């Protein structure tokens, strides 16, 4: 069996049923192998790497193994943002990149185009090395079984993340003499006994501990363990909806805000940035529970860690028991926050331009009534929604590389079969390469809600933060951060999708329901572009 076919066979054995691919002159072996054996993983064309790698990320978030195949150095360049995102957000991802043929003659695979010289780079792995857990250029076809086994071991062991395998064209056609499987188990950390004892002491002693998280809900058993712990011992949870849903928003311990200066212990779980020192100056002990507590990839990092525990959240939470705290104050605070939000939504519901918080409330209502998963990029505010189930919410990935939500929503939909709604800023929508998204989404349709505030509000906010008395703020004029408004979602019609532009707050709910019906009953992509105010 030749190298390319061996890779596809081994991927299939490892449960991969789909490869998101942007092919080039490096993939004849994959294409030939798929034609020879249709039972090999599907080669799902997504015609831009930003969307393809996002789809693979969504596939992994949906519990399967995301695999993306890209074209040598140009494809890697376009996929780099997704690689960075999966590294910093700890998402398993197998990135396969072709490599320019390295021979000038002697093989069918030898160079036959100008680009086969010009696309060669001195060290291809270097392009991604800061953001992958492992990279390797396969030198001989016999190395394929061990390389694939190792790739799975590394990407699935915590902290999970991307691996980058380079496949030269010569190796892809070379015979593999022995396709022997190599067992390579995955592994993950658990807390040492003495650290557990210390954590128990600190938690017992504290009167006002608070859990701060960001992605402790990224695995179902973690989500369940955190919820049980917080509920049983009455410890409030901040960022219950962070990068993922970490704790149900209808749970008794879900808080939108909490004055951290009144806490006497922070239990920081899978969160690289627990708070902003610029905003709040804290002198509170910290227990950190994390599969990699140091975040050593971040060069400057000043957060204290009085007790650093390298563990998965479930291994920690399921091994600790303490006397429950008195949760009455948290419940009161929570009830107050819910009432405030209700009153706020009531105040905002007739307002023009539409307020993004009100839109989030309406999106949240639809998502919970119709059991949809939300993929959010930038504007949806989860506090105004009811998000209760594991896997019902995914948001901006850690490194802030915009453009993942469109592709990821489709990958997630394919992996889970769940209906998905994407919420995205107008800027983020464009970063997501809509046309490439439509190509794949027309087969697996989702609904997209664009929060169109006519530009990059984040860039405007940065000006106000850095120059609070500045002229730009006084003049409300922000060159470089604003752009003209177009009907950006209308391009979906070229892909037989459904489009609506909404400016009237009373039209929000009916438009969302119409869009969802188009997705569910007519199998169409729906894009609802909502003109919103330039506020958060
Ligand atoms: C690929 C990429 N380019 C640029 C940025 C910088 N950036 C951060 S937020 C933002 C604005 C995004 O616009 P939009 O989605 O409309 O959200 P808004 O801030 O307007 O609510 C930009 C440009 C980024 N994070 N990623």
Structure explained in plain terms:
The protein has a six-stranded parallel sheet with strand order 2-1-3-4-6-5, with helices on both faces. The radius of gyration is 24 Å and the shape is globular. It has helices at residues 3-13, 28-36, 49-61, 72-88, 115-118, 144-156, 169-173, 193-205, 220-233, 313-317, 328-348, 356-369, 405-416, 426-431, 434-441, 457-466, 471-475, 508-522, and strands at residues 18-21, 42-45, 67-70, 93-99, 134-137, 162-168, 209-213, 237-238, 254-255, 265-269, 286-290, 307-310, 373-377, 393-394, 420-425, 447-452, 498-502, 526-531. With 536 residues, it is α/β, with parallel strands linked by helices. It folds into three domains: 3-173, Thiamin diphosphate (ThDP)-binding fold, Pyr/PP domains (Rossmann fold); 193-330, Rossmann fold, CATH 3.40.50.1220; 349-531, Rossmann fold. It starts with a helix and ends in a 5-residue tail after the last strand. The mean pLDDT is 97. Thiamine diphosphate (TPP) binds at residues 378-379, 400-403, 425-428, 431, 453, 455-459. Thiamine diphosphate binds at residues 378-379, 400-403, 425-428, 431, 453, 455-459.
């Amino acid at each position: 069996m030749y190298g390319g076919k061996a890779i596809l066979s081994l991927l299939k054995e490892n449960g991969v049923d789909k490869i998101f691919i942007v092919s080039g002159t490096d993939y004849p072996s994959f294409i030939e192998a798929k034609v020879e054996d249709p039972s090999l993983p599907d080669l799902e064309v997504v015609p831009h790497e930003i969307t393809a790698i996002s789809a693979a990320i969504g596939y992994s978030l949906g519990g399967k193994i995301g695999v993306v195949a890209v074209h040598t150095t140009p494809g890697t360049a376009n996929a780099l943002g997704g690689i960075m995102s999966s590294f910093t957000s700890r998402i398993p991802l197998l990135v396969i990149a072709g490599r320019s043929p390295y021979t000038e003659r002697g093989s069918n695979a030898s160079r036959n185009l100008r680009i086969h010289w010009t696309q060669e780079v001195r060290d291809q792995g270097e392009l991604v090395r800061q953001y992958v857990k492992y990279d390797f250029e396969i030198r001989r076809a016999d190395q394929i079984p061990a390389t694939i086994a190792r790739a799975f071991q590394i990407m699935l062991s915590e902290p999970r993340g991307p691996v980058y395998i380079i496949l030269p064209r010569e190796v892809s056609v070379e015979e593999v003499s022995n396709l022997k499987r190599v067992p390579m188990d995955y592994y993950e950390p658990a807390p040492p006994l003495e650290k557990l004892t210390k954590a128990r002491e600190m938690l017992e002693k504290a009167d006002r501990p608070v859990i701060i998280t960001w992605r402790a809900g990224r695995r179902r058993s973690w989500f369940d363990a955190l919820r049980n712990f917080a509920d049983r011992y009455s410890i409030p949870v901040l960022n219950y909806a962070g990068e993922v849903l970490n704790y149900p928003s209808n749970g008794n311990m879900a808080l939108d805000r909490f004055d951290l200066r009144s806490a006497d212990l922070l239990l920081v779980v899978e969160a690289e940035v627990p708070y902003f020192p610029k905003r709040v100056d804290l002198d509170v002990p910290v227990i950190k529970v994390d599969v990699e507590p140091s975040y050593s990839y971040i060069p400057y990092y000043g957060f204290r860690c009085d007790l650093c525990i390298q563990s998965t959240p479930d291994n920690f939470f399921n091994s600790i028991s303490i006397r429950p705290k008195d949760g009455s104050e948290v419940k009161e605070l929570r009830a107050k926050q819910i009432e405030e939000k209700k009153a706020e939504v009531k105040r905002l519901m007739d307002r023009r331009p539409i307020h993004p918080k009100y839109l989030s409330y309406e999106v949240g209502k639809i998502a919970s009534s119709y059991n949809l998963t939300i993929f959010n990029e930038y504007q949806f505010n989860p506090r105004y929604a009811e998000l209760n189930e594991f896997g019902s919410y995914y948001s901006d990935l850690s490194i802030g590389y915009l453009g993942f939500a469109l592709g990821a929503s489709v990958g997630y939909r394919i992996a889970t079969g769940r209906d998905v709604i994407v919420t995205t800023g107008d800027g983020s929508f464009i970063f997501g390469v809509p046309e490439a998204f439509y190509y794949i989404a027309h087969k697996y349709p989702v609904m997209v809600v664009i929060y169109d505030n006519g530009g990059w509000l984040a860039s405007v906010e940065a000006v106000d933060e850095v120059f609070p008395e500045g002229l730009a703020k006084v003049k409300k004029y922000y060159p470089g951060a604003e752009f003209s408004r177009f009907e950006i979602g209308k391009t979906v019609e070229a892909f037989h999708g459904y489009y609506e532009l909404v400016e009237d707050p009373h039209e929000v709910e009916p438009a969302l329901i119409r869009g969802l019906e188009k997705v569910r009953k007519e199998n169409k992509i729906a894009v609802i572009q909502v003109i919103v105010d330039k506020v958060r």
